[in-house]
Amino acid sequence: MSTHQSDIASLLPVVEHNRREFFVTKLAAGFALAVQPVTPQTITTATDGLVAGEVKIPVKDGEIPAYRAMPAKGSRFPVALVVQEIFGVHEHIKDICRRFAKAGYLAIAPEMYARQGDVSNLSSVPDIISKVVSKVPDGQVMSDLDAAVAWAGKTGKANVSKLGITGFCWGGRVVWLYSAHNPKLKAGVAWYGRLVGQPSENNPKHPIDVAASLHGPVLGLYGGKDQGIPLDTVEKMREALKAAGKKGSEIIVYPEAQHGFHADYRPSYGKADAEDGWRRLLEHFKKNGA
Question: Reduced to 3 states, what is the DSSP secondary structure of residue 72?
Answer without folding.
Answer: coil
